[in-house]
Write a structure and sequence with these properties.
- The protein has a six-stranded parallel beta sheet with strand order 5-4-3-2-1-9. Strands 6-7-8 form a three-stranded parallel beta sheet.
- Helix 4 runs parallel beside helix 5.
- The protein has ten helices and nine strands.
- By secondary structure, it is an alpha/beta fold.
- The two termini are about 25 Å apart.
- The protein has a single domain, classed as TIM Barrel, CATH 3.20.20.
Length: about 210
């Protein structure tokens, strides 16, 4: 892995596909559909039992892919993510135990925040890259713009309600490095194993943010 910081890595892609996967084997074709269409990055969430195995499989079949573990709520999950081969960890909130575990594991951690107090807590813990979550429900671009004002060095990845119609509104904000999204990797498309449509939507998303 290169020496780029987590924010620089995410900024290379601008769009981070956020995936919940029920059958670990599906990750191979899914990862291929993403990479072949311009997104060599993924966040595999620990919302399902298959997460760790999916990360392991993808790491072995596509070693160059930048793989994140999402919805990491505990130290144990952080350890699982690291052992499976994840390059970074994302959480919906800011849990100090998870933050400390990631520091011990030497894996970048992107906590979820949506208030000034949470931003300050993240900065105090030495974390300058955060996930603004749930982005749209928490006030969207307007809220993020207000939140960014006092915290000039903050790097942000909005996630939650971000889609092809509003992603560029978020990316237009100086402190936004990338956005997490599910529209190109919806559960329905994964369940249908519709890799062609996932590929088409991925290519469309990449073109939209360039």
């Amino acid at each position: 892995m290169s020496k780029l910081s987590i924010s620089e890595q995410l900024a290379k892609f601008k769009v981070i596909p956020v995936v919940a996967i029920d059958e670990a084997e599906d990750i191979v074709e899914l990862g291929k559909a993403l990479a072949d269409n311009g997104l060599n990055v993924i966040e595999i969430t620990f919302r399902t039992e298959a997460a760790a195995e999916a990360i392991r499989l993808l790491k072995s079949t596509q070693p160059d892919m930048y793989i994140g573990a999402g919805t990491v709520l505990t130290k144990e999950q952080a350890v699982q993510a690291k052992e499976a081969g994840a390059s970074f960890v994302v959480a919906p909130g800011l849990n100090e135990h998870t933050a400390c575990a990631c520091k011990e594991l030497d894996i970048p951690f992107v906590p979820g925040v949506c208030t000034p107090s949470e931003v300050e807590k993240a900065l105090h813990l030495g974390l300058d890259t955060v996930k603004f979550f749930p982005a749209e429900a928490a006030g969207g671009v307007k809220m993020l713009k207000a939140l960014s004002g006092p915290y000039r060095n903050l790097k942000v990845m909005p996630t939650g309600g971000v889609n092809k119609d509003n992603i560029n509104d978020y990316l237009a904000l100086k402190q936004v490095v990338a956005c997490g999204g599910t529209w190109m990797v919806s559960k329905a498309l994964i369940d249908q194993k519709n890799w062609q449509e996932i590929g088409r939507l991925t290519k469309e998303a990449v073109e939209a943010v360039q």
